[in-house]
Amino acid sequence: MDFLIESSWKPYLEGEFDKPYFQKLVDFVRGEYESHQCYPKGSNIFKAFEYSKFDATKVVIIGQDPYHGPNQANGLCFSVQEGISHPPSLINIFTELVSDVGVKYPKSGDLNSWARQGILLLNATLTVRASMPGSHQKKGWESFTDEVIRQISANKTKVVFLLWGGYARRKKNLIDIEKHFILESGHPSPLSANRGYWFGNNHFSQTNSLLEQVGHEPIDWDLS
Question: How do beta strands 128-129 and 38-39 pair?
Fold first, then answer.
């Protein structure tokens, strides 16, 4: 299993790898992958960092943990592998996307083209046991991904953080609101979206407006 992170992130995160919590996390994850079916595959655990390098990251979307069904998780939050049916939350994300910026509803649920444009699609927990949502929570991943958010906040400016749902919104205290932009809404899951907390947030168009204000290229959200 590959626990090497993309080189642009190392100056900001390599101090975490020697901490006792991370060593325990590595042992736990390796043991889980050896004895159980886990997702995503080992080579994709740090895929979000590979696609969105540190200097290029200008948007952060925070998820909770990977999809726990077969062939779904690909290392990017809310994203699924090519050819896999869209989970309910992703359907609601795409429905809002179509309404907000007028693109066609995407056929593929793979969000790697967003990541390659500088969107860090970060799950708070980077691994999960098959069919057991939340099974790798509170094992150390949250300490690591909280540090990712802190380092982005401390060492970059004018990043747009999209905080969807109560779990992601609790990460707000890790972000310097004087230096960065924060857009908050309900979670795109059906429970939240159907109660009126997701649809109409216009986060995709708002993100591009904020990026353009500070001289960044807007995101091409079109996945069709």
Answer: antiparallel
Task: State residue 224's pLDDT score.
Answer: 84
Contact 69, 40 (CB under 8 A): no
Sequence-separated (6 or more) residues with CB below 8 Å from residue 182:
160, 161, 163, 172, 175
> Among the options 2, 18, 55, 65, which is catalytic?
65
Strand partners, 121: 61
β-pairing, 59-63 with 160-164? parallel
Instruction: For residue 50, give the nearest of 104, 108, 95, 9 by alpha carbon.
Output: 9
Element (H, E) at 88: helix 88-101
Separation CA 63–CA 165 (nearest Å): 9
Distance CA 90, CA 78 (A): 6
CA dihedral 115, 73, 80, 86 (to 10 degrees): -140
Profile the chain (224 residues) by mean pLDDT over runs of 10 residues: 83 94 96 97 96 97 96 97 96 98 97 98 98 97 98 98 96 97 96 88 98 98 94
| 3 state SS of 78 | coil
Asked about 27 being catalytic, the answer comes back as: no
d(CA 172, CA 159): 13
